[in-house]
Specification:
Layout lengths: L2 H7 L5 H9 L3 E3 L2 E2 L13 E4 L2 E4 L5 E6 L3 E2 L8 E2 L6 H5 L3 E2 L7 E8 L2 H8 L7 E7 L5 H9 L14 E6 L2 E6 L6 H8 L4 E9 L2 E2 L9 E3 L2 H8 L3
Parallel strand pairs: 6-7, 9-13
Antiparallel strand pairs: 1-2, 1-3, 3-4, 5-9, 5-15, 8-9, 10-12, 10-13, 11-12, 13-14
Helix pairs in contact: 1-2
Bound molecules: uracil (URA).
Family: Belongs to the pseudouridine synthase RsuA family.
GO biological process, one term: pseudouridine synthesis
Pfam family, one: PseudoU_synth_2
Length: 235
Amino acid sequence: MNLESILFSQGFGTRRQCRGLILDARVAVAGQPCADPLATFDTAGLVFSVDGSPWPFHTHAYLALNKPAGYECSRDPQHHLSVFHLLPPQFAARNVQCVGRLDQDTTGLLLLSDDGQFVHAFTSPKRKVPKVYVATTRHPLDETQLQALREGVLLHGEREPSAAVAAHARGEHELELSVLEGKYHQVKRMVAAAGNRVEALHRERIGGFALPEDLAPGAWKWLDAAALDALRNPG
Ligand code: URA
């Protein structure tokens, strides 16, 4: 692929802007400056840099973000900053989207991708991917609430009850809940329907992929093939 197309595909601006970056000698490939927009490179494992900042070529972007509270998943947020403020602008430019949404005040594992099939597969109600949340509850947890969550609670406006695939108390006010669907405010509504209230919510895991321990709140990382496998195979 030629260098202009490489930069364009990775979200470095319009074709004209990408060509400009190259002609202005701001781009290097594998450590060597390259000012020819038509120079071609094998993209497998390619790392180029713009103004000295390295960028690994990825045909598609698959990312994990440790979402802090106070960020909206929308690109066009109403009341808070967007999670896209936590990411390099190249990702918004290449149309990376959130894979399902977390509420503004929910923290933890958020996936993002520009692979439409991947986004669809993980957000489709047909594809039942378990998602593990930890909720801090206002009132002490008890067995009646946990059983209601496991057996299913009827949410306002729904015909069928929503059940957790697993629900147990990690502490008096700490609930671990695993759900398959991703309905609007699902966990908060389920906990409310079971007679308690969520004070704080954190997503720890999607499928077999847990939020990496070394990923600080607000930090993101590329997902490698092993992480993508873990996501698809909860194990
Ligand atoms: N359920 C909720 O209620 N909120 C989230 O952010 C995610 C799941």
